[in-house]
Amino acid sequence: MAPDDVFRQILDPAARADPYPLYAELRETPVFRREDGTWVVSTYREIVELLHDPRISSDRRNLAHRPEGDMGEGMGGVSFITTDPPEHDRLRRLTVRHFGPPHSPGVVEALRPEMLAITTELVDGLAGKTRADLVDEVAYPLPVTVICRLLGVPREDEPRFHAWADAVVESLGPGEEDRAEREQARAEAVSKLQTYLADLAVARRDAPGDDLLSGLVTYEGPEGRMSPVEVIATSALLLIAGHETTVNLITNGMLTLLRHPELLKRLRAEPDLIVTTVEELLRYEPPVHFLSSRVALADIPIAGTTIPAGAPVVLVLASGSRDPAHVSHPDTFDPDRRYSEHLGFGGGIHYCFGAALARLEGQIVLQQLVNRLVNPRLVEDPPPYRPSATLRGPRHLLVDFDAVNPAAP
Amino acid sequence: MRVVIDLTRCQGYGQCAYLAPEVFTMHGDEAVAYDPEPDDAQREHVLRAAAACPVQALHVDRNTMRHWTAPVRRLGDGSGGIVRDGHIVIVGGSLAGGRAAGVLRREGFTGRLTVIGEETHEPYDRPPLSKQILTRRVPAEHARLPRLREVEAEWVPGNPATGLDLAAKSVRLADGREVTFDRVLIATGTRARPWPHEAEAALEGVHVLRTLEDATGLREALAAGPDRVLVIGGGFTGSEVASACRELGLPVTLVERGPAPLVGALGGVIGRIAGDIQREHGVDLRCGVTVTSLEGDAGRLRRARLSDGSTVEAQVAVVALGAVRNVEWLRGSGLAAGPWGVACDAGCRAVDVNGLVTDDVFVAGDIARFPHPVFHYQFMALEHWGNAVAQAEVAAHNMVSDQAHRWPHLSLPVFWSSQFGVNIKSVGVPTLADQLVVTQGSVAERRFVAVYGYKGRITAAVTFDQAIWLEFYQRLIERAAPFPPDFRHVDMRRDSGPVPAEVPERALAGEGATVVVTGHDPAERSASLLYGEP
């Protein structure tokens, strides 16, 4: 099959449950040009090279041909995910200042007790039942609650932005042909989200708390401060990204573990194993399958071909992490791998901002589900998937179980 | 538990500092400092950090090696060309020697393995000695490297080698013992160059920094709160010591013979930037002068006299004038060993005084002087952590492989230094350059990439807090890409074109020994070394 046809199949929702054989076909042509002019990169080495290549831009305004209606603003305005250095670096530094090292090294670790408590409460909620949808009842509420606490969004407002965030995420993805339509749908959701966040930002400026949003609106350093527009774009990005990715990590994770019963047993006996299990999940069933908004700034010779300046570039992260030239037995789920490098969080300067948070959430919630659900079984395999090929994960994950163990003291 | 970060690989993602903030701390954007021997209570956190490292540069508990990405392909008779038996002796038990021991076992060597070390304690990691150990963030004894417990080897500590007999294939030890070998690896490294005036060097308060004992002594001297510290020499060690002193709040004067710090490694343009950073952090930096004498009072250092006639009152002086290679024990061995190191081929096989390659003697680490194809086959000796590791792996592999399966040591030199909250990294050979250009970032912001060129080709790149881009430039060097780079890229703020790199004239370490060639017929011509007085 021609690589472009393979790629079309990958985008087809019918392939959502198991795109991996198609990725293997894709890798036979590590770098190729789609009919619409997009360049697709699917092998590990080439993806890593491009993630660290300063000739690759994340700013779609650098496209030679921009589809009509493409505002190039990604998720809710200009934030560090859609900009290049030096803008990117400045915005990311101003944000990380309130979230991680060097200035706030303990923030993520300090959230651990709260994550644990939220998880316990959610799993407690399954007691008395014998069937649950882990997406709606555990995997979705946990990250939403955590990101709300972190940012300082009142929890009672959560249902309002749930819908906006969903609309934004479903509009993401590779392909240029229907991009204008998708941009349109996104614009509406984004503007509502922005209005909401603008009000919240004003409230935090007047009465700051110890949350991230308060940090963004009040901090002023040698590099100046974030403009109100930047604050809104950044917090929108964090809300959406913090929302729609971890849910996939958790549900893909539980799905994978339920398909490997021997591993469920081991995880109950070896608590440390959850750490490398989550790492292997990020390689084997990652929440984010594509990075699709990159642009070549110059002609880039790679893998025997040349990506021309101005061309859109799609990096198929999920394929790269299963590249047999990089990892042995790539289609085996093996948490005992050592020195496993993967593309689960991307790489280079746009490496996932919330990686540490996602890892901890994944470890905590999967550990509890494994320890507390008695005799868990999948109700349907494969489960129904959400339509997005980019942020790939089950829409529902129905699980039967005999009982729910009490939380460990 | 013991931890070591391969900072050659580290790109400053900081994930370890998120997940184990008590053990790993970021200084500035990307320099990471850590406790190499954290408390066992931190175990869970450290394991999380190690698993999360995006480039898998964090090693816990053992002296492990990364697997090669592609499986090693072996051709031939099925034995894989591996030498399995016999006796291998490694002289030198530090980073290169220890790493080689591990690789030998991994490669399937099942024979007898002996490691001879000069020092009495377990192998330790040197980079922390000039950083987190001086600033007392971690105790000195925490610098020990992860244990070699996987490696079955006989350790002979505290008993340095004093001679090598190529004909008898034996190593002579200080206690008179002779240890015979089938193959030997020379990895005796370097020691600090002492202050040349012996009586002055003996003054209390005069330090060098190379070993764990040096670091412990200096740390105590700094903790006593001297009125001023004098650092003699503005190379990486001297600059890092000055940085540690400033972090401790101590007044410090740094005296550098050249026009700026780091000039010897990075040239004048980048050296001046490093000098500006030092001054911004309160270092009293004196360039273009030398210390002519150290003066004491009742056996204690009081002041230094400088070549410009000035004096510096200081109670502590750190002599950071580079390193001397530990080659004395090889005198008369017939190897091409001298102040330049021990010459070897790109496969780490030692070269004898005639320039002939030996079969059973290998060299790795700071002491090895090898030809690098990428840099015009110039012989170079690299005193870098990453080189010690990479070269030890190649040497160990070649020691147990036949000719058809040997590897060349072709990795590009990479080194790093963290000072004043800035992470400096370099790939290639910055001193092989006629020009440089800042391609990405801004010198004023102290975050930039400088690319070095020589005769129209890229030969090196140096990053200040921009390490994430280093591998891209490494590939450009490997492909001999044209200089200056002519493509469009992110963060282009080029306000000036290429400028002269101002690298020092290449100084040959020729003093101390002279090569003399004798004989007329090809069969009788030979080279020999004449040693002057040290």
From TrEMBL, chain A:
It comes from the Bacteria. Keywords: Heme, Iron, Metal-binding, Monooxygenase, Oxidoreductase. InterPro entries: Cyt_P450, Cyt_P450_B, Cyt_P450_CS, Cyt_P450_sf. Belongs to the cytochrome P450 family. This is Cytochrome P450. The lineage of its organism: Bacteria, Bacillati, Actinomycetota, Actinomycetes, Streptosporangiales.
UniProtKB/TrEMBL annotation, chain B:
Residues 87-392 form the FAD/NAD(P)-binding domain. Residues 415-486 form the Reductase C-terminal domain. Its cofactor is FAD. Pfam families: Fer4_15, Pyr_redox_2, Reductase_C. Gene3D superfamilies: 3.30.390.30, 3.30.70.20, FAD/NAD(P)-binding domain. SUPFAM superfamilies: 4Fe-4S ferredoxins, FAD/NAD(P)-binding domain, FAD/NAD-linked reductases, dimerisation (C-terminal) domain. Keywords: FAD, Flavoprotein, Oxidoreductase. It comes from the Bacteria. PANTHER family: APOPTOSIS-INDUCING FACTOR 1, RIESKE DOMAIN-CONTAINING PROTEIN-RELATED. This is NADPH-dependent 2,4-dienoyl-CoA reductase/sulfur reductase-like enzyme/ferredoxin. The lineage of its organism: Bacteria, Bacillati, Actinomycetota, Actinomycetes, Streptosporangiales.
